[in-house]
Recover the amino acids of this structure.
């Protein structure tokens, strides 16, 4: 059965940390008038058939022909209501992935959406589209960074139509700047071949690899940082310390840290918050945290300290470890981007939209 194939390849890809981290990525399969899509807040590594939401394909198609308000909040609320209404009977207690509409654009049976650091080294680079076409050819659609949700879906809808008009066939790959990549195929084997082809071509262009073995750090300074962090966040805080070679490299100076001081993708915002803070010593931490809290109404999850690496702070072990995992991913993206012309983080406007977007707040809550 199609749903069994969907569960199987979702678990396989979701268990590979080079491809999927935490609740990132999503998959889908079409069976006649129905599309099965990953439920929001679920994880590909462990998802079962119950974790997918059955959607009415005809109802999804109608969303692209509707007029929506220009106001961000009103537009997204109405589009979300229409998306919810497209669920098949009996699915009312499930929430479909935020990228359901993107999956519905492809006619192919299976769709795989991932955010590998290697791919995002390209999508989050100043070389962007030009290098993608040089490396991968022209049989894909490139979409510049834009607000997620309905806006992104409509842009992709229009670009898909343009591509089909020019090429006489649908595109099977969509690459989203500062986000990730979509693959569509009629068999799971084809999906795998497409993914391997892209990763191999990008790998050939990599000149600098990230290195996550433990580096040389100031242990006494790190311990003082731990003490101050607990004073600020409270004794119930959970702190994950990352003194890897890569972390220490980016913590070496404000100039070195500049490459990772803004988010690259929505997942980095969901799991690491808007951005990290930087300090030269334990005495700097309180001021940096206070300044962040004044700006965003909450404390940062990532604290970069010169000579130490970074600290990930949350109030659960899962939250702290996941924040560290995703910030390490950001370090990977920054390093890979050096091979593609340098880093291109999200704009402040886009980062602010995602930070305050109800859909991502829901996903963060589900993965807490």
């Amino acid at each position: 059965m199609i749903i069994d194939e969907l569960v199987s390849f979702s678990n396989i890809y979701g268990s590979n940390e080079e491809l999927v981290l935490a609740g990132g990525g999503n998959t889908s399969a079409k069976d006649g008038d129905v599309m099965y899509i990953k439920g929001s807040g679920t994880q590909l590594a462990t998802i079962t058939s119950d974790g997918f939401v059955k959607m009415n394909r005809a109802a999804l198609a109608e969303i692209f022909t509707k007029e929506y308000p220009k106001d961000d909040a009103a537009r997204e609320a109405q589009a979300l209501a229409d998306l919810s209404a497209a669920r098949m009977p009996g699915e009312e207690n499930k929430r479909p992935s935020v990228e359901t509409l993107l999956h519905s654009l492809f006619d192919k049976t299976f769709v795989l959406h991932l955010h590998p650091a290697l791919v995002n080294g390209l999508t989050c680079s100043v070389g962007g589209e030009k290098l993608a076409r040089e490396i991968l050819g022209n049989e894909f659609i490139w979409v510049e960074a834009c607000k997620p949700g309905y806006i992104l879906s409509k842009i992709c809808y229009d670009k898909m139509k343009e591509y089909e008009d020019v090429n006489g066939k649908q595109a099977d790959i969509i690459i989203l700047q500062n986000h990730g990549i979509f693959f569509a195929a009629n068999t799971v084997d084809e999906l795998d071949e497409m993914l391997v082809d892209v990763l191999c071509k990008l790998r050939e262009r990599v000149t600098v690899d990230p290195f996550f073995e433990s580096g040389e750090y100031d242990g006494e300074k790190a311990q003082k940082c731990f003490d101050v962090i607990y004073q600020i966040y409270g004794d119930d805080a959970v702190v994950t310390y990352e003194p890897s070679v890569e972390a220490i490299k980016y913590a070496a100076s404000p100039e070195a840290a500049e490459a990772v001081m803004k988010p690259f993708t929505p997942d980095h915002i969901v799991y690491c918050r808007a951005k990290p803070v930087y300090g030269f010593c334990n005495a700097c931490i309180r001021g940096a945290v206070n300044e962040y809290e004044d700006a965003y109404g909450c404390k940062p999850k990532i604290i970069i300290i010169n000579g130490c690496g970074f600290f990930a702070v949350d109030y659960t072990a899962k939250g702290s470890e996941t924040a560290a995992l995703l910030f390490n991913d950001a370090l990977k993206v920054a390093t890979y981007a050096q091979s593609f012309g340098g880093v291109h983080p999200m704009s402040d406007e886009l980062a602010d939209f995602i930070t305050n977007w109800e859909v991502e707040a829901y996903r963060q809550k589900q993965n807490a």
About this structure: The two ends are 32 Å apart (CA to CA).
